[in-house]
């Protein structure tokens, strides 16, 4: 069995599984993108960029699920991503604003509430 994950230019992920009876013989192929989304394998990725007061650009990425958030930060003057820093209050505000706008377009409203609870639990 072969599984491939591909991202298009809009960063949408497409998953495909191909089953081979023996090397070189094709048996079946199916799209499993929705299956992976439904079991939580693919997370919502939200990102934004901002310019700090010192003129440096800062990118924030958040992997969002109902159970946890994974924050990532990168300054334009740094080489790698920072996975350890705590989010600022403005980061929480920006994330909740984006989620509220998505909820208004039919996305999961309960996700906004879950993130609010995580913010309170984190002490922000």
Features of the shown structure:
globular, 2 domains, 3 helices, alpha+beta, 3-stranded antiparallel beta sheet, single chain, 6 strands, 29% helix, 124 residues
Mean of all residue-level pLDDT scores: 77
Radius of gyration from the alpha-carbon trace, in angstroms? 19 Å
> What structural category arises from helix and sheet content?
alpha+beta
Sequence of secondary-structure elements:
EEEHEEEHH
Uncertain segments are none
- Helical percentage: 25-40%
Mind describing the biggest β-sheet? 3 strands, antiparallel
Distance between the termini: 46 Å
Report the oligomer: single chain
Amount of beta strand = 35-45%
Q: What is the global morphology?
A: globular
Spatial strand sequence of the major β-sheet: 1-2-3
Annotation, overall tally of beta strands: 6
Q: Helix count, per DSSP? A: 3
What's the number of structural domains?
Answer: 2
Can you put this structure into words, describing what you see?
29% of the residues lie in helices and 37% in strands. With 124 residues, the protein is an alpha+beta fold. The chain has two domains: 37 residues, no CATH class; 79 residues, no CATH class. α2 runs antiparallel to α3. The radius of gyration is 19 Å and the shape is globular. The chain starts with a strand and ends with a helix. The relative contact order is 0.10. The model has no long low-confidence stretch (mean pLDDT 77).
Which secondary structure elements does this structure contain, and how are they paired or packed?
Blueprint: E1 2-7, E2 13-22, E3 25-31, H1 33-38, E4 44-51, E5 57-64, E6 69-75, H2 89-104, H3 109-122
Antiparallel strand pairs: 1-2, 2-3, 4-5, 5-6
């Amino acid at each position: 069995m072969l599984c491939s994950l591909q991202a298009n230019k809009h960063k949408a992920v497409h998953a495909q599984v191909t089953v081979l009876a023996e090397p070189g013989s094709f048996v079946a192929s199916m799209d499993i993108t929705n299956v992976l989304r439904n079991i939580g394998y693919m997370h919502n990725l939200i990102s934004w960029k901002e310019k700090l007061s010192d003129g440096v650009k800062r990118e924030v990425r958040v992997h969002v699920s109902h159970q946890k958030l994974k924050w990532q930060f990168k300054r334009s003057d740094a080489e790698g991503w920072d996975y350890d820093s705590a989010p600022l209050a403005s980061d929480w505000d920006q994330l909740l604003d984006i989620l509220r706008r998505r909820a208004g377009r039919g996305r999961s409203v309960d996700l906004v509430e879950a993130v609010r609870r995580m913010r309170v639990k984190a002490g922000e």
